[in-house]
Design brief:
Blueprint lengths: L3 H12 L3 H8 L3 H8 L12 H11 L3 H7 L10 H12 L3 H21 L1
Length: 117
Amino acid sequence: MDDLASLIDRVMRDRDWTLSTLARRSGLSVSTLHSWKSGDRATGSRGPNPDKLRQLADGAGLTIAEVFEAAGRHVPAAIDDEEERRFLHLFRTLDGEDRRVIEATMAAMTVRQKSRS
């Protein structure tokens, strides 16, 4: 399995892309990709931002799982559009206080899940 820097190098080599090309295709800045490629992720202890990892996957034609694994992040479970719609519908029916409770619960579950992987 590649680490994130090796994955970026492989994508660039296999597709004969420059860092600028990968940045343009993924919608990420050259500086973000450069910091990941050099191993200086500049993201603190949590690792690269999941939304940016998804952008990299989309732009490079890679799976989300491949990119998240290379970044050392928990691979998110797939969610289909209907499941997401139902979840958001339920969430929107809650008042602000209950939304904060759900958000805190989900954050705690994410930390717990990350510690198990």
